[in-house]
Design brief:
1 helix, globular, SH3 type barrels, alpha+beta, 7-stranded antiparallel beta sheet, 7 strands
């Protein structure tokens, strides 16, 4: 696992085809905090549609492996065995935008 990778979150897969949630999570934990034996990682969900107007959501671009928005305001500790993948890595511009959004969310 590396910061900026997008993984499938198997435990929270939508149960219906019309469920708006997406099962993707972006690894937010710094690489030095991600040794192979670590069981919990900090992630941010990727949603298909943004339900609120927030400055801490990052719209994924054409250079990213999936479409949607990364919700920097919904960070969560995720049990690593529930993740499968990765399905890809955020583009450099999206990773920079996510870092800025996280600084804004944490009021740094």
């Amino acid at each position: 696992m590396k910061q900026g990778e997008i993984w499938l979150f198997e435990r929270e897969r939508p149960s219906r085809d019309n469920d708006p949630r997406t099962p993707y999570r972006v690894i937010v934990s710094a690489d030095y905090r991600l040794p192979s034996e670590r069981k919990w990682v900090l992630t941010a969900p990727v949603v298909a549609n943004l339900d609120i107007d927030t400055p801490v959501a990052v719209r994924l671009s054409d250079g990213d492996p999936i479409a949607g928005w990364v919700r920097a305001d919904q960070l969560t500790n995720t049990f690593a065995p529930w993740l499968s993948g990765p399905v890809g890595t955020l583009a450099a511009a999206s990773l920079d935008a996510l870092a800025a959004a996280l600084r804004t969310e944490m009021d740094l």
